[in-house]
């Protein structure tokens, strides 16, 4: 049960401006430091990213406009996250949880999905590479594992030859992108097929959301991945990239 003092604090929070919230949180995090002037701007991002910096005794905060109408407790949680990051401190778990819970709400996820579609820019090179054609790889796997029933998304090679991100599925643009590092004669086709199969499983088993939890690789996803023939050999080949 919330005490009368706690209710007063919550009521006061709802009447604070974002600038006042950030100033108050700064005071709580750095009680021995003078509170800088706070300047907050909202920008048309394609996601919920925000940034902060301290320059010439001014705390400059840029927040994605999708959060402009967020409730005061969410703005407070964001203030704790950004200011803690600024001073290289751990964010209290309660504020991290509150913020993730908000972003995981169905209506917020839907709005972010639309923003990524409208504002996000996606580089699509096409399926044909120097060595492999992603369309051929996709259709072969589609017949072998999905009875040919999976709709083909946009297929592309990445701009750069990333070793850390070998592939990804972008649901906002319905695109599978594989790293250009795989498009080489010395890379076994089995390795390319495995990375493509992994990304196709993201189409088959979408991300599950529950509260603040976001599960990308569900139990069904992992089970299907283990059924890929030559899984061990494919992973071994990828280690040598």
State the gist of this model:
By secondary structure, the chain is of the alpha/beta class. Helix content is 45%, strand content 16%. The strands form 3 sheets. It has a 3-stranded mixed β-sheet with strand order 1-3-2, covered by helices on one side. A 3-stranded mixed β-sheet has the order 4-6-5, covered by helices on one side. Strands 7-8 form a two-stranded antiparallel sheet.
Give your account of this protein's structure:
The chain has 241 residues and is α/β, with parallel strands linked by helices. The protein folds into 2 domains: 4-119, 2-Layer Sandwich (Zincin-like); 134-239, Zincin-like (2-Layer Sandwich). The protein is built from 9 helices and 8 strands. Strands 1-3-2 form a 3-stranded mixed sheet, with helices on one face. It has a 3-stranded mixed sheet with strand order 4-6-5, with helices on one face. Strands 7-8 form a two-stranded antiparallel ribbon. A hairpin with a 2-residue loop joins strand 2 and strand 3. The termini are far apart. The mean pLDDT is 89.
Distance between the termini: 57 Å
* Shape, per Cα inertia axes: elongated
Low-confidence regions: none
Tell me the strand order in the biggest sheet.
1-3-2
Radius of gyration: 23 Å
> Count the strands?
8
Q: Whole-number average pLDDT? A: 89
Our count of helices gives: 9
Largest beta-sheet details: 3 strands, mixed
CATH class of the largest domain: Alpha Beta
CATH architecture level-2 label of the largest domain:
2-Layer Sandwich
Helical percentage = 40-55%
Q: Quickly give the structural class.
A: alpha/beta
Q: What share of the residues does DSSP label as strand, in percent?
A: 15-25%
What pattern of helices and strands is seen along the backbone? Answer: HHEEEHHHHEEEHEEHH
């Amino acid at each position: 049960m919330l005490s009368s003092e706690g209710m007063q604090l919550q009521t006061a929070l709802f009447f604070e401006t974002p600038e006042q919230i950030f100033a108050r949180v700064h005071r709580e995090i750095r009680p021995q430091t003078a509170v800088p002037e706070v300047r907050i701007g909202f920008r048309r991002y394609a996601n919920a990213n925000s940034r902060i910096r301290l320059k010439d005794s001014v705390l400059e905060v840029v927040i994605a406009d999708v959060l402009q109408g967020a409730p005061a407790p969410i703005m407070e949680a964001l203030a704790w996250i950004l200011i803690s990051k600024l001073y290289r401190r751990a964010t209290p778990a309660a504020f991290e949880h509150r913020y993730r819970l908000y972003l995981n709400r169905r209506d917020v996820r839907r709005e972010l999905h639309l923003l990524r579609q409208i504002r996000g820019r996606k580089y699509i090179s096409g399926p044909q590479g120097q060595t492999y054609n992603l369309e051929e790889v996709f259709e072969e796997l589609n017949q072998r594992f999905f009875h040919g029933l999976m709709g083909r998304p946009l297929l592309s090679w990445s701009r750069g030859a990333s070793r850390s991100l070998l592939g990804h599925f972008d649901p906002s643009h319905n695109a599978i992108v594989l790293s250009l590092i795989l498009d080489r004669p010395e890379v076994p086709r089995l390795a390319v097929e495995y990375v493509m199969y992994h990304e196709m499983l993201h189409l088959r088993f979408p991300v599950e959301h529950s509260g603040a939890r976001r599960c990308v690789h569900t139990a069904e996803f992992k089970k299907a991945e283990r059924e890929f023939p030559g899984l061990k050999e494919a992973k071994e080949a990828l280690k040598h990239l």
